[in-house]
Amino acid sequence: MKTIKKAVQCEINVKKSQFICSLFPTKTKKESKEIIQKLNNQYSDATHNCTAYIVSDGEGFDDDGEPGGTAGKPMINVLRKNELHNITAVVTRYFGGIKLGAGGLVRAYSKSVMEAISEAEIVEIEEYAVYKITFEYGDIKAADREVRNNQLTAIDKEYSDKVSYDIVSKDKRDIEKIFEKYSGKISVEYKNKQFLEKI
């Protein structure tokens, strides 16, 4: 599976209408909706802000006032065809005064997303299990040593009353085996599954 490394933006003009496609790497519906809202505010003067997203907890699209099936659906179809995941696409349209017709709209919205994808850096992603390890501040060196020596990846670290790392792995037994010698000192719990850049 693939996603984009970082956000990109691309602009095309079709019969005086301006189409601006913004692509963002996103992991959840919540993240997608926050980005869509931000762009709706940023381009509040646009004729339409059409959207499509494919993320770990679902997918969706919206024509934002364009005739049904002429914007959001073609956009999500382009994302699917390119096997992209963890991604949100927003195409902002400024109407140029010439109607494009249903076929013209489908082509314009599709092309807008395709152009943006062609400018994006594509990276491979895989599904990983995420585990949370929790320990006291005095055990940071031991935890860091195990993470380093076992080529584990910590995708998040939190320092509050205790320290916790989010560790990714393909195999739960590996994680449990690594930390079992610290029984009572370093606790391990399964958190969730995430699509992440190939480690």
Folded structure, characterized:
This protein is an alpha+beta fold and 199 residues long. The protein has two domains: 119 residues, Impact, N-terminal domain (Ribosomal Protein S5, domain 2); 72 residues, Alpha-Beta Plaits. It is built from five helices and ten strands. The strands form two sheets. Strands 1, 7, 8, 9 and 10 form a five-stranded antiparallel sheet that branches. α2 packs parallel to α3. The protein is elongated, with a radius of gyration of 21 Å. The mean pLDDT is 91.
Q: Strand tally, please?
A: 10
Output the CATH homologous superfamily of the largest domain. Answer: Impact, N-terminal domain
Shape, per Cα inertia axes: elongated
The topology string of helices and strands comes to EEEHEEHEHEHEEHE
Mean pLDDT: 91
Radius of gyration: 21 Å
State the helix count: 5
Structural class: alpha+beta
CATH fold assignment of the largest domain: Ribosomal Protein S5, domain 2
Q: Residue share in helices?
A: 25-40%
Cα(first) to Cα(last) distance is 13 Å
CATH class of the largest domain: Alpha Beta
Uncertain segments = none
Beta fraction:
35-45%
CATH architecture of the largest domain: 2-Layer Sandwich
- Taken together, the total number of domains comes to 2
Largest sheet: 5 strands, antiparallel
